[in-house]
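To close the section, here is one more complete example, presented without commentary so you can practise reading it yourself. The ligand is zinc ion.
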Amino acid sequence: MSTQPCTPPAARPANAAPARPRVVAGPEHPRRPSSPAAASADTVSVGRMLRFFRGHRGLTLTQAAHTVGLSASALSLIETGKREAKLSVLTGLAEAYHVRVEDLFSTRAPSQRAALEIELEQAQRAPEFAALGVPSVRISPGLSTEALAALVGLHRALSEVRRERAATPESARQANTLLRSRMKAQDNYFGEIEVLAGDLLRHTEYQGGPVRNRLVDDIARRLGYSIVPAADLPFSTRTVTDRKHRRIFVPEVVSTKNELRSLTLQALGHVALGHDVPRDYGEFLEQRIEVNYFTAAIKVPEREAAALLIDAKARRELAIEDLAEEFEVSFETAAHRFTNLSTRHLEIPVHFMRVSREGIIHKAYSNDGVNFPADATGSVEGQRVCRYWTVREAFNQPWGSAYSQYTDTGAGTFWCTATIDETPDGPFSVSIGVPNAQVRWMRDRVTEHRAVSRCPDPRCCARPGEEVERRWRDAVFPDARLTPGLLSALPPGRFPGVDDVEVMEFLERRGP
Ligand SMILES: [Zn+2]
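Output:
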């Protein structure tokens, strides 16, 4: 049984995610070990059952223990779930209580009171509770049902608060760091998703070049879904999928056809990849990465893109812009796609970054040994990148075209190219880079721009000059511009950041 400490069978919330088969790209995803309290959940619940049935028969501990040759204290330990009973003991007791042995293992508590007792017992056994250092309450017949219900209510509320806290930046960063190391280990190539996307495209009339919206509709049909434009989509969502009636609601008004294509493909990605309600923040992020990968793998199909790249490499004319042009995608999508395919098909290691005007990393990937700044937990997102790196120098150049530069760093020399992407959240610089040894394949390798970065040495760019610092250190007091959306705390819910009420009300309005 996989019952969690705070949700015994009688009180399992309706939204608890059921076990399910998962499509996981690459090596088996590391599973979290189950909590030690979960292992004893059965013992607790069997013990409660035994106590309940004994009470029902009007037997004392001593009387009941006597029928199976145990001491009263031994039976008490079994009833409180502190000791596991042998099957022979259970059989004997079931007989004495005039019940079947199966009844002792019933997942249904025999009464409301027993359900509360089980829930409290399990909550008090959870390691999170032990960590609070609060004494636990002895569960005895003398404890009123009212007090019992109040305690259980408090434990439930506490577990809710804990769940909210689980969606704060710190744990989000940890989950993200874990995911990034997995992506690096597989060179950012997700074979299963490539095969899935390739198969779906092969069943349309796709002939190469850009993947038009018409083909996306074909893919939806193949997956058994229809695309329905809606003017009243909940504000907290990009699209809403109704799995019962197999419809995907997309916004009626979008800024570009490209945006509609991306939104639709992301929703279809969840369907095609068999995603279910995420169990935790890590799985939520993983699903986002997988649907983004799926979307890019449809828009820039592996077979056609790899052919183009292999040919360009042979001519020493590799350029992200060509990929963007051929498939009519943004520089960022093309750059992202380049990281998926370059190591696999071209044997070129690579790094990728998306950096805000303030120099803060929003997205990053590397398998080429570049020394990204990182915090103590190994998290790269949210760190400020060296001001001499290409990705930041690009802000100081004309924004219309790509800017390329060689940068000497503590980890070697890298050639990078960056483009500024103007978004409603402000301008972002998107860059792709390769180690010096690989630059001979790149078309824009000839450039006068060179820089030296000594970061993480703070004397590189993290501190002002001594003279300047002395003049201003005690006189300056700036007010920070907070960058929203960077692994920031998301309102908790089944889907972080999504307003469940709005979504269900939206579907209610739609009807079948
Ligand atoms: Zn620096």
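Once you have examined the tokens, check your reading against these statements. The mean pLDDT is 83. The pocket of zinc ion is lined by residues 386-388, 453, 455, 460-461 (CB under 6 Å).
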